[in-house]
Design a protein that fits this description.
It is a single chain. The protein is mainly α. The chain is about 50% helix and about 0% strand. The protein has nine helices and no strands. α1 packs antiparallel against α2 and α2 crosses α4. It is elongated, with a radius of gyration of 24 Å. The two termini are about 40 Å apart. The relative contact order is 0.10.
Length: about 230
């Protein structure tokens, strides 16, 4: 088992930090996704470069070397982990090309990993179950309106919990943030003006054709257990 020198480790971590900033600031990825992809990229770089390397010769990366790395990982990785490895390295190779660190986009050299598929369809909430969830929300209060907006994003748009958590209150309410430039920076911003909220049945009404889910359909994204 080869051990990388501190010099090589520092070079790899510096490259990974630039990659993480690209994911966060340019690609808009979640921090958890950045950590996961960085882990796989680190494993690839450590396997590719010699322990005593004094610089990262990224120009030496080519499709045959990438293919050999995948063949080696396939000996111990299950298909799902190989798929995650492929997604991470495709993103990394696109970053190398976009940032001018490699003259070619090597993402096409990543092999496609067969998906064994699921044994059964994922469980999801029925229309009746969704209506019960919305009935528990008090749309007459500001907090209730926000809860209804969060539930609506999950049920109608299929957003993940982490994506909804990144949305601000004004964005959930569909309104631009107010301009507080003429107020003291130490004063609290004005609270939302409470207004009557829509009924749960109105929130669950079928959307027009071409918008959101087809009328009468249930969202598989509002899965049970989320």
């Amino acid at each position: 088992m080869k051990t990388n020198t501190p010099k090589l480790q520092a070079l790899i971590e510096a490259l990974l930090e630039a990659y993480r900033q690209h994911l966060l600031q340019t690609a808009g990825m979640q921090p958890s996704t950045c950590r996961c992809w960085s882990f796989y990229v680190r494993e690839f770089l450590k396997a590719h470069f010699k322990p005593k390397a004094v610089r990262l010769d990224l120009d030496a990366l080519d499709p045959p070397k990438i293919w050999r790395f995948f063949q080696e990982q396939a000996q111990s990785y299950p298909p799902a982990r190989l798929q995650a490895l492929g997604v991470a390295l495709r993103s990394f190779f696109r970053f190398l090309c976009l940032s001018g660190r490699h003259p070619q986009d090597l993402s096409g050299a990543i092999p496609r990993i067969a998906d064994p598929g699921r044994e059964e369809l994922p469980a999801y909430l029925s229309e009746a179950q969704l209506e019960l969830v919305f009935q528990a929300v008090d749309g007459r209060t500001v907090a209730g309106q926000r809860e209804a907006a969060v539930l609506l994003c999950l049920a109608r748009l299929g957003l993940r919990a982490g994506e909804v958590a990144q949305l601000g209150g004004y964005r959930l309410a569909g309104r631009p943030p107010p301009d507080h430039s003429d107020q003291s920076s130490t004063g609290p911003p004005p609270a939302f003006a409470a207004r009557p909220g829509p009924s749960p049945r109105a929130l669950l009404a079928p959307t027009p054709a071409g918008h959101g889910l087809p009328p009468g359909s249930s969202s598989p994204c509002a899965t049970a257990g989320r």
